[in-house]
Amino acid sequence: EAFGSNEPELDVEVIAMGMDLLQHFGLSDLRLEINSLGDKASRDAYRQALIDYLDPHFDELSDDSKVRLHKNPLRVLDSKDKRDQEIVKGAPSILDYLNEDSKKHFDRVKALLESLNIPYVIDPEMVRGLDYYNHTIFEIMADSKALGEGYTTICAGGRYNGLV
């Protein structure tokens, strides 16, 4: 957790500390995935676009996603239901709905990660499970047999300016 700054540098500092800590513990095969949920205006624009996309698929959605569709449609993107996952493959990307300020914030995060030689993958479908996130969200994953098959999320978080 970090408080007191709206700057993207703080997002990168938190991510870098997480990566450093996990590497210090001996984990070497790490993958960082990031996304931006933008500010409130960006999320509101995307929310409507997502509803417009998902509404015609309403009958095909899982029961959970039907409930989420008008409450918090971003959570449909996070569904574990196979049918929902197929439907959202064609959904619009939140990155296409970021306003100028949100784009600048995310571009700065990416540039800072690159300057620190921290490789990352952008996952435009990542939304995290909590509704209060804005701007940068991330997951650090490890590929370790001790954690199961494939990559497993071992550290995750994001920015939530309006919570405190």
TrEMBL record:
Keywords: Ligase. It comes from the Bacteria. The keyword Ligase applies. One of its GO terms (biological process) is histidyl-tRNA aminoacylation. Residues 1-163 form the Class II Histidinyl-tRNA synthetase (HisRS)-like catalytic core domain. One of its GO terms (molecular function) is catalytic activity, acting on a protein. The keyword GTP-binding does not apply. GO terms for cellular component: cytoplasm. Transmembrane segments: none annotated. Pfam families: tRNA-synt_His (PF13393). This is Histidine--tRNA ligase. It comes from Lentilactobacillus parabuchneri.
